[in-house]
Amino acid sequence: MDITQLDLSEADYQTLHLCHPSTGLELVDEEDDTPVLIQLYSADSDTYRAAVRKFGNKKLNEKKNRKQSIEELEESSASLLATATHGWSGLKIGENELAFNFANAKKLYRDFPWIREQVEDFINDRSNFLKSA
User: Fold this and answer.
1) Other beta carbons within 10 Å of 112
2) How far apart are CA 104 and CA 131, in angstroms?
3) 61-to-21, 48, 56, 81, 132 alpha-carbon distances in Å
4) pTM beyond cutoff 0.85
5) CB 11 within 8 A of CB 113
6) Dihedral sign, CA of 71, 76, 124, 33?
7) What are the residues whose beta carbons fall under 8 Å from the beta carbon of 51, sequence distance 6 or more?
8) How far is the C-alpha of 89 from the C-alpha of 39, rounded, in Å?
């Protein structure tokens, strides 16, 4: 078997259909009944792995005895997930459509743990990014 067929480092982004944290039902935009979608790259993507390396190298270069707070860990996690995000549609904060950019993605993942969990699960499930045999 040619294992390069399973290389996800340059795989296209795939789409997560965001689900309600309690019911598990897909969320839809109430105005036009379209699904709430987040486009994501695999955790194996070159971009995501480079961000992980950068974060890891930074931590290695900090003082040995410095402990990281939970808030710092959450911030780092949100930054890594924002790096893996290509875009979204149907996300609103109140009445306003949430514009896609790195800062908003980071804030979204930091402020909404249930979204962060779905995104983490999605990017770490390689079957979401591999083409069917």
Assistant:
1) 16
2) 30
3) 38, 20, 9, 22, 42
4) yes
5) no
6) positive
7) 79, 80, 83, 84
8) 9
Cβ–Cβ < 8 Å for 118, 18: yes
Secondary structure element (H or E) that encloses residue 72, with its range: helix 70-83
pLDDT digits (tens, 9 = 90+) for 32-90: 899 999 999 999 999 999 988 988 888 777 766 677 788 888 888 999 999 999 999 99
* Helix pair 113-124, 70-83: axis angle to 10 deg: 50
Closest by CA to 86, choosing from 132, 34, 48, is: 48
Smallest CA-to-CA distance from 17 within 33, 39, 44, 48 is with 39
What tokens does 40 get?
């994501």
Tell me how far apart the alpha carbons of residues 20 and 27 are, in angstroms, rounded to a whole number: 6
Amino acid at 61: N
